[in-house]
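Schema walkthrough. Field components (list of strings):
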Amino acid sequence: MFTATLRDGFALRLMEERHAPALFAAVERERLHLREWLAWVDATRAEDDTLAFIRSALEQYAAGNGFAAGIWNQSRLAGTIGLHKIDWINRRVEIGYWLAREFAGRGVMTDACRAVTTHCFEELGLHRVEIRCAAGNARSAGVPKRLGFVLEATLREAHLLNGNFHDLLVFAMLAQNWIA
Ligand SMILES: CC(C)(COP(=O)(O)OP(=O)(O)OC[C@H]1O[C@@H](n2cnc3c(N)ncnc32)[C@H](O)[C@@H]1OP(=O)(O)O)[C@@H](O)C(=O)NCCC(=O)NCCS
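Field assembly_structure (string):
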């Protein structure tokens, strides 16, 4: 079971079906903030959509292909972090994340990404961890930069958000370069 304790009372715990109301409520509160950079937000219209997401993430976890975790501050859901489907052939994965505004600006996501990256290398035995974000998403790009990920590429207009194509930055960390 994936869990991690972070600084200042924050912790990562696997998302479970019982968390659907809290997760949907957080998405509702943060909708305008999140939809600027996350394409799935507009498709999340009801709690059932969130429940379906959690169920598919639990299936992904059961199959050994990654997970979705809540970032909790005591009993409050601050955001989520997760792995896209693991590419086991190449031992490569991509991390995705978001944080509610009231928890931003304190290094919480940097801590969460550090814990998940360490888990990827030390527990899962992966070789390469990627973080991808739109070129204009400076706050998201700040997370891999702070952790020493290397900016390897700009994929031109590879990211469609709200009807506009954005350049997509590809940051990566290799197992041999990771100091937890
Ligand atoms: C991307 C996102 C999670 C980044 O949030 P964030 O709060 O900037 O990231 P962190 O929690 O790591 O905090 C970093 C900030 O806290 C500051 N900070 C304070 N204490 C810190 C510490 N101990 N360690 C690291 N940073 C610290 C950093 O200086 C930084 O602030 P700055 O950018 O003004 O310099 C958030 O903006 C978000 O959810 N955006 C919408 C969804 C999104 O874009 N998701 C990613 C799609 S690719």
